[in-house]
C-alpha cells in the first residue's frame, strides 16, 4: 500500500501555494515533480563529486564515472532488460526516436517502404518518421482508435503489408490515457519479421514495464516524467538491432580510434553516445528510478488506478464536460473540453487561479486532435503523490469554470 502523505512529504514543491491556494499539481503527463532524494543526488553530484566521466583517472572522475555507469544497470532492472549493454543513454524519448530513425531506419528503408503508426502518437514518435517520408519517400500508415479511444492490436497487425518495415507505437497515450496492448503487437510483428519501436514515455511511470516479456525491439523512456531531471532518458535496444545500427552522432566516447584516414567505432552501447553526456541528469535519473522501484511499481499502479476510478466517477457527474477517451483500462489521464465557447487555455487559466495546474493545448498530438475533432483540450494527469482530495478540488474548480463560461 502507498502512504500518500509520506510520499508527498518527500516533494518540497507540493507544500507551496499558487495564487494563494495550495498547489494541486495535475500536469504530470508533461513533467513530474522531483522527490528530495533526487534533489539531494543532483546537489551531491554537482557540489561534491562532479567531474567528466570515462577518461579521467583522478578520484572525482572515477566517482562520477562509477555513479553514471551504475545507472545503466538501474535502467536495465527497471525495464527488465536482459543486460545493461542493451541500454543507451539519451536526453529523452525525442533523442531516442531520432537515434532509431537515423541509426537504424534511414540506412535500410527506401521509397515506398511503410512505417505503421497509431493516431495517438506524440510528435516525438511522428516527426522522425516524417523526416524519412520527406527525404526517402517512406510512407506513413495510420491506424485509428475506436470510439472509446482503444487501439485494436489486430488492426495494427492487419495494416502490415509486404512493404512494412517498422511499427512505431505508444505504450500509453499521453492524451487519452489509453494503454496499448503492445505485447500482442510485438508477438504478431515478430512473426512477420517487423521490428517494433515503443514510446514508453507515459507508460513507464504508471505501471511495471518488462521489455523481455513485451518482445519489443526498442523501448524509450524519458527522465523528466519519471520523477527525474529533464535532459535524461534511455532506450532499450534489442542486441540484433544494435548490431544493425549506424552511429547517429559523432565525437567523444563513441569512438575507439581516430586517424587521418580511418576511424573505429566503440562497442555498443557507447557507440551511440557521442560527446560529453548529461552526467548529473543521468545520475539523477538513476536515483528517481531507484525511488520508484523502492515504492514498488505495482503499488504505484494500484494507487493511481484508485485515483483514476475516483476521478472518472466524479468527472462523469459533470454533464457539461466532454472527456476524450473512455477506455476501461486507461491510466489516470483525463483530457476534456467544456460545452460552449470556452477554450482550453481559458479553462486552464481559471483552474490556475484555484492553484490547479493542468496542461492545455494539443499536447504534441495534433493528428489525434484532428481525429477527435477538437483543436485543443485541457488535460489533468495524475501521479503517485496525488490524492482524492485533489480530485475534489479539480471538480470544484471545473464547476467554477462552467459557471463563468455558461
From TrEMBL:
Its cofactor is pyridoxal 5'-phosphate. GO terms for biological process: cysteine metabolic process. It catalyses: (sulfur carrier)-H + L-cysteine = (sulfur carrier)-SH + L-alanine. Its EC number is 2.8.1.7. One of its GO terms (molecular function) is cysteine desulfurase activity. InterPro entries: Aminotrans_V_dom, Aminotrans_V_PyrdxlP_BS, Cys_dSase_SufS, Cysteine_dSase, PyrdxlP-dep_Trfase, PyrdxlP-dep_Trfase_major, PyrdxlP-dep_Trfase_small. Keywords: Pyridoxal phosphate, Transferase. Residues 24-394 form the Aminotransferase class V domain. Signal peptide: none annotated. Belongs to the class-V pyridoxal-phosphate-dependent aminotransferase family. Csd subfamily. Catalyzes the removal of elemental sulfur atoms from cysteine to produce alanine. Seems to participate in the biosynthesis of the nitrogenase metalloclusters by providing the inorganic sulfur required for the Fe-S core formation. Catalyzes the removal of elemental sulfur and selenium atoms from L-cysteine, L-cystine, L-selenocysteine, and L-selenocystine to produce L-alanine. This is Cysteine desulfurase.
